Amino acid sequence: MSETTLLIPKIESGIVIDHIPAGKGLEVLEIVHSYPEMRQVVATVGLNYASQKLGRKDMLKLQTHSLPGRVMEHMAMVCAGVSIKRIENYKVVERLVVAVPDNIRGLARCRNPNCITNHERDVQSRFRCIDPTSKRFACAFCEGIFGLHELSVIVPVGEHLSARE
Ligand SMILES: [Zn+2]
User: Fold this and answer.
1) Number of independent structural domains in the chain
2) Within 10 A of 164 (CB to CB), how many other CB atoms are there?
3) If you measure from the C-alpha of residue 150 to the centroid of ligand 1, how many angstroms do you get, rounded to a whole number?
4) Are 34 and 156 spatial neighbours (Cβ–Cβ below 8 Å)?
5) Residues β-bridged to residue 61
């Protein structure tokens, strides 16, 4: 129960992203930092902790008070199952497990080259989850069915790219 507090120093307040599958911690950190409003957030990365549930797990501590909705959606796409805890005065005040999203709006590109979302700039892509277990999604425009891993995530336009160049 106190595993977290033993292995990573307690923080007075912030966000802990826990139960990240081992090896994915840095990827999750990169996602968080790819959003401009999160770029300055101080982060502590913990890798390869023993976990009863996962065998090994990674963990992130972020010195911020909340995660923007689009960051949560992005994480739901790439690492559903992680848990997010909000800490205040050294206590967990909120805890949630990131679920496979019901809908993905404007965050992923349709795999169908003929889909209108790949041709009209003003059309925002939209996918609906048709089976959370197999993580299959249907495009709202072309009705194509895709696995979650097949949907490539659209990085925040311009913001992310300009930071890398
Ligand atoms: Zn489509």
Assistant:
1) 2
2) 7
3) 12
4) yes
5) 16, 44
φ and ψ at 127, to 5 degrees?
-130, 145
* Residue 86 sits in the same domain as residue 126: no
Burial 102-121 (b: 16+ CB within 10 A, else e): eebeebbebbbeebebbeee
Question: How many whole angstroms from 152 Cα to the centroid of ligand 1?
Answer: 12
Q: Give pLDDT tens digits for 4-52.
A: 545 566 778 999 999 999 999 999 999 999 999 999 999 999 999 999 8
- 62 with 110, same domain? no
The Cα–Cα gap between 38 and 29 comes to 10
Ligand 1 centroid to 157 CA: how many Å? 20
Q: How far apart are CA 138 and CA 117, in angstroms?
A: 13
Of 97, 121, 148, which residue constitutes the final position of a domain?
A: 97
Q: Quick one: how far is CA 101 from the chain centroid?
A: 11
Residue listed under structure tokens 């965050």? 107
Q: How far is the CA of 114 from the centre of ligand 1 (A)?
A: 8
Q: What is the pTM of this model?
A: 0.78
How much distance in Å is there from the Cα of 132 to the middle of ligand 1?
19
